[in-house]
């Protein structure tokens, strides 16, 4: 169209046809009310072509922001409780995974979630750590991997995936037994954790839930959601050194192990962060220490 003097030159766009995606009009430039810019040319905004407002991503999901959705308000532990509770539905058992680097607070978060959700009533949430699938020291010695204990290939990843698949299936009143990990002995314990048929939500936690290599790749599809715990690196290292000292290592040995084997594992885990449904910041993690007996029985990677 030819524009008269003092009139804005305009172009017209056809309404999107089937198969083409409608674009959200650009904001209206100052000084040109009712005109939206498209490319280098302005376009008149007519009443017959209303501006489309896409819904806010956080509202569209109906839950907390995911790794692709930045939270606009601080996340709290109560928010995590509500999100975890919403996973449990009648007629099916849900599995929530909690991942993160060693020392990031995965076990503490899982134990607090289970304790709060179960309350004083009939337990409907179970805690199944990945730690029970550590290979025994005798097998690590045979494989020559004892000095790398805690690395991805020092676990029975296929066995862990098989247990998750079984936990996700409905059973007729059958209790499923999962292995635990004795931190004092540094050994797995078969049949240490009962998961009753009444459990509608299973919380599992470990380093490698989001790993895409080997048998670990079978794990992520079996989980309804995976959260990634993230804390400041100096604090994570401090916690990890203190944990190794608590369970028998002297300070120098603990520092060397954390800076060597543990750090290589932590770097690997950090690269899987983008696959999580939710990144849990340090301020949302519970701070109260869990009982030492619970830590020894459940273990922590």
Could you characterize what this model shows?
The longest helix has 20 residues, at 251-270. This protein has helices at 57-61, 77-87, 106-118, 137-143, 157-168, 233-246, 251-270, 292-298; strands at residues 35-38, 41-44, 94-99, 125-127, 176-182, 187-195, 201-205, 225-229, 278-280. The protein starts with 34 loop residues before the first strand and ends with a helix. Helices cover 30% and strands 15% of the residues. By secondary structure, it is of the alpha/beta class. A hairpin with a 4-residue loop joins strand 5 (176-182) and strand 6. The model is unreliable at 1-65, 67-71 and 290-301 (pLDDT under 50).
Give the gist of this structure:
This protein is of the alpha/beta class and 301 residues long. The protein is built from 8 helices and 9 strands. The chain has helices at 57-61, 77-87, 106-118, 137-143, 157-168, 233-246, 251-270, 292-298, and strands at 35-38, 41-44, 94-99, 125-127, 176-182, 187-195, 201-205, 225-229, 278-280.
Q: What are the SSEs and their pairings?
A:
Blueprint: E1 35-38, E2 41-44, H1 57-61, H2 77-87, E3 94-99, H3 106-118, E4 125-127, H4 137-143, H5 157-168, E5 176-182, E6 187-195, E7 201-205, E8 225-229, H6 233-246, H7 251-270, E9 278-280, H8 292-298
Parallel strand pairs: 3-7, 3-8, 4-7, 8-9
Antiparallel strand pairs: 1-2, 5-6
The strands making up the biggest β-sheet line up spatially as 4-7-3-8-9
- What are the low-pLDDT stretches, counting only 5+ consecutive residues below 50? 1-65, 67-71, 290-301
Structural class: alpha/beta
Question: Averaged pLDDT, please?
Answer: 77
State the helix count.
Answer: 8
Radius of gyration, rounded?
A: 26 Å
**How many beta-strand runs?**
9
The largest sheet is: 5 strands, parallel
Q: Which percent range fits the helix content? A: 25-40%
Distance between the termini: 69 Å
Q: What series of H and E elements makes up the topology?
A: EEHHEHEHHEEEEHHEH
Estimate the strand proportion: 15-25%
- The global form is globular
């Amino acid at each position: 169209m030819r524009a008269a003097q003092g009139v804005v030159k305009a172009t017209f766009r056809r309404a999107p046809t089937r198969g083409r995606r409608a674009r959200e009009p650009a904001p209206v430039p100052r000084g040109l009310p009712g005109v939206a810019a498209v490319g280098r040319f302005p376009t008149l905004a007519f009443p017959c072509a209303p501006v489309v407002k896409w819904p806010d991503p956080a509202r569209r999901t109906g839950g907390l922001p995911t790794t692709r959705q930045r939270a606009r308000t601080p996340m709290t532990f109560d928010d995590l409780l509500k999100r975890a509770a919403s996973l449990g539905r009648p007629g099916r058992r849900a599995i929530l995974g909690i991942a993160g680097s060693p020392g990031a607070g995965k076990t503490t978060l899982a134990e607090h979630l289970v304790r709060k959700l179960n309350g004083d009533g009939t337990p409907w949430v179970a805690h199944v750590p990945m730690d029970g699938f550590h290979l025994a020291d005798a097998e690590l010695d045979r494989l020559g991997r004892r000095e790398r204990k805690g690395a991805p290939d020092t676990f029975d990843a296929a066995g862990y995936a098989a247990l998750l698949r079984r936990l996700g299936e409905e059973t007729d009143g059958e209790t499923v037994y999962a292995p635990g990990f004795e931190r004092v002995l540094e050994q797995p314990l078969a049949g240490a954790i009962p998961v009753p048929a009444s459990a509608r939500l299973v919380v599992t936690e470990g380093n490698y839930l989001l790993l895409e290599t080997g048998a670990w790749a079978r794990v992520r599809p079996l989980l309804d959601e995976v959260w990634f715990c993230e804390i400041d690196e100096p604090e994570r290292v401090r916690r990890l050194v203190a944990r190794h000292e608590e369970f028998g290592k002297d300070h120098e040995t603990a520092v060397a192990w954390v800076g060597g084997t543990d750090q290589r594992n932590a770097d690997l885990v950090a690269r899987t962060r983008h696959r999580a449904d939710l990144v849990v910041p340090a301020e949302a993690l519970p701070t109260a220490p869990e009982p030492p007996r619970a830590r020894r029985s459940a273990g922590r990677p």
